[in-house]
Task: structure prediction
Amino acid sequence: MLCQDVLRFGQKLVRRQLLEPREGSESLLARCLNTLDLVALGVGSTLGAGVYILAGEVAKDKAGPAIVICFLVAALSSVLSGLCYAEFGARVPRSGSAYLYSYVTVGELCAFITGWNLILSYVIGTASVARAWSSAFDSLTGNHISQGLQGTFSRHVPYFLAKYPDVFAFALVLLLTGVLVLGARESALVTKVFTGLNLLVLGFIILSGFTKGDLHNWQLTEQDHKLATSGSNGTYSLGPLGSGGFVPFGFDGILRGAATCFYAFVGFDAIATTGEEARNPQRSIPLSIVVSLFICFLAYFGVSASLTLMMPYYQIDPESPLPQAFLHVGWAPASYVVAVGTLCALTSSLLGAMFPMPRVIYAMAEDGLLFRGLARIHTRTHTPIVATLASGTLAGVMALLFELSDLVDLMSIGTLLAYSLVAFSVLVLRYQPDHSLSRNENKIEMEPVVEENPLESVPKAGILKTLKSLCDPINTSPTLKSGRIVYGCALLLVLLLTALSLVLAQWPRRVFSGDPVCTTVAVLLLVLSAGVTVTIWRQPQSPTPPPFKVPALPVLPLLSILVNVYLMMQMTTGTWAQFGIWMAIGFTIYFGYGIRHSLENNTDPQPPASNSQTLDKNTPGDELA
Result:
């Protein structure tokens, strides 16, 4: 009896939502967004204030003029995740983004973890962008707003709270929450306006940089360093300025800069939450993800090139790089244009962070994993009104009270975890038989299947035959057996790539310097990963092509997982402790409410002892049993 209870409990944790629609599950959201709306949402979410600040920080301390290469590497890394989102957005055109994708493929518990961390990412992202908007506007007024608020409220506050309540940021979040309540079409219109203004300003910056720039700033020599750093007494100190040239900090600087620039492309996943509001989601979602990432790359590439052409990289001011660059070339009034562009970028970024947040909450509440009241749809505006108001209020309160600089890394963990699970889901789902996604087949699949085990009948020959079949399968279409092989290999690969990322993140110098222990471990993990990848590659894929396909399967999703896990390994112990606290709160909600109220509860398979009841529901005697 205990074993059956444990088995039943375990089956609840891995039960999957099926691709076929439920009875009476017609979406109440309005399909009103076209491809241009989705591109504007993706660009607005991704191309925030970082384009005005990040380029200066990375160029001065990490990469120099080679920052353009950093953005290229970061863009290619982001495209790995973007293509995975594009395929699933075409396969599953519904709200929920990575939460829904992992629910379809991995199971309910992983789906809840994904959705719960997406909520965390969006809430922290919204609050931090709102405070950045308030700070940028405050600087234009000569810091009068912050000084007035600091004088009004006491300075004696706990360390985790902000120095003063940011009333301006709180009001801004509530204002944009009202815009979101009005409807998806109205929100998209506001996003398009501010995103368009931001792109116009960035275009002006890029053209100005190419006009007033000097190619000599990409070819700086040691003599230029001496002239720039010599003091009044004629002394010279090279310091942390690098060695000059186009790549002053070497290949290591490019890698460190690319890791930082990767976060500049975070935000495109907001497009994937519009599956029930896009007019043609199977076409517009993949197209808009790819186009928005390309536009963002061109903007980051152009701005960083212009900045490093206008002035030597070692003279860049990390706090306000672009105004300082225009001052350097004699165009001081252009700093006002930069200020306008910064506010427009922050506004579109704020809307981009707020738009997907209630959609994820709505999807989880509709599935029963969060409180059902959060899934209420307004009858006139066709928006998830309760989820929008609740998430907007929570983000507003955080922007009002908390110091968010210490929570940005926590937001990154949630985003990277979602990216990894989407890549895993694409890797697994492509190798599953199509009929395994239907509800009846899912029930039968979860029941014990009696098969001949070649390892029992012919031990030695069976082992060789099994190993050979892994790399040379007979079937040309996926079967339940090949699907299970891929699923198990994919889980093993995640463990191997996590171990490899840990080694590379914690002991990079020892690995590349030839340390016998670290280098051997890294090479062994790499070889094992390659072997398991070949095993997956040799399995048959589904003959039914999705509307959009990730190329180079299984290599591309695995590279995406490796990049995401490697960046997660860079997080501090304190950040992981905060992540543990957030997950403890989430598990309390899931095991206290979600696991019992999940809609998949009604479709759970019966335990093995009652197989006959599952297969023969129409038999009269079963009701008495």
